[in-house]
Amino acid sequence: MLTAKQHELIRFIQQRLEETGISPSFEEMKEALDLKSKSGVHRLISALEERGFLRRLPNRARALEVIRQPEDATPARAAVAPGDNVVPMVPPAPRVAESVAANDVIELPLHGRIAAGAPIEALEGQTTLPVPAALLGPGEHYALEVSGDSMVEAGIFDGDFALVRRTNTARDGEIVVALVRGEEATLKYLRREGSQVRLDPANASYDPQFYRPDEVEVQGKLAGLLRRYH
User: Fold this and answer.
1) 190 CB contacts (<8 Å, ≥6 apart)?
2) In this structure, are residues 71 and 11 in contact, taking their beta carbons and an 8 Å threshold?
3) Any bridge partners for residue 188, and if so which?
4) pTM, whole model, 2 decimals?
């Protein structure tokens, strides 16, 4: 079942695709759905993708494809009963896994710079980064340029490109892209300590950062690194 916001978002994306042939930006989706931050849009898109309604096109930045729509195509708020927050949907169509040759190059969306120090804003990217397919495992990936030196003891240096697999879950001790307070992103080890989330650097010169669980959203796990030598 889809929530009202999920239903509203997929209808908005489809309408924009029909009008312009280009999917809307995260900022446009945020404003259309009256959300406070783009992290809410990320969550809705991930949920729709998991349910087989949307697909992100991996070789293009800001590209979404509507695979199917809810069975009830009327606007979400008119489709639900009072007090309800879901609308019917048809069963997802099976997806066929695509094989990629080991010597292929994949164009990953490059979503700006990410801090390996104090958190900085991770920008929605409009460019791509060519990456050998052999460096990537299964799943959808994107790239971020690393800024800072707080992860040097993990072999992650300023100017490296972090290859990130999209996910919103992670285990303790994994290196993640963490969105802090819906605005800033950082690359750190994720650990849970009591009622708090701890983001640990890999540099003895930096202190761990502590946040409430509702202040931290996992947006991916480190899958690999790409380094350019000049």
Assistant:
1) 170, 171, 172, 173, 174, 175, 176, 178, 197, 198, 199, 200, 218
2) no
3) 176
4) 0.54
Torsional class of 177: left (φ above 0), alpha (ψ -120 to 50), beta (otherwise): beta
User: Does residue 150 carry a catalytic annotation?
Assistant: yes
pLDDT of 208 strictly over 90: yes
Note every long-range contact of 72-75, with CB atoms under 8 Å and residues 24 or more positions apart, other chains counting.
Answer: 73/11, 75/7, 75/8, 75/11
Single out the catalytic residue among 23, 147, 150, 221. Answer: 150
Helix or strand run (H / E) with residue 72: none
Query: Rounded CA gap, 73 and 56, in Å?
Result: 22
Q: Are 12 and 24 in contact (CB under 8 A)?
A: yes
d(CA 143, CA 38): 18
- Residue 186 CB contacts under 8 Å (≥ 6 apart), including other chains: 114, 115, 116, 117, 118, 119, 120, 177, 178, 180, 199, 209
Most confident of 24-33, 49-58, 83-92, 184-193: 184-193
| Residues written for the chain | 230
Which member of 37, 188, 195, 221 is catalytic?
188
Residue 188 catalytic?
yes
DSSP helix, strand, coil percent of the chain (3-state; round to 5): 20, 35, 45
Give the pLDDT of residue 221: 93
First to last CA, the chain: 51
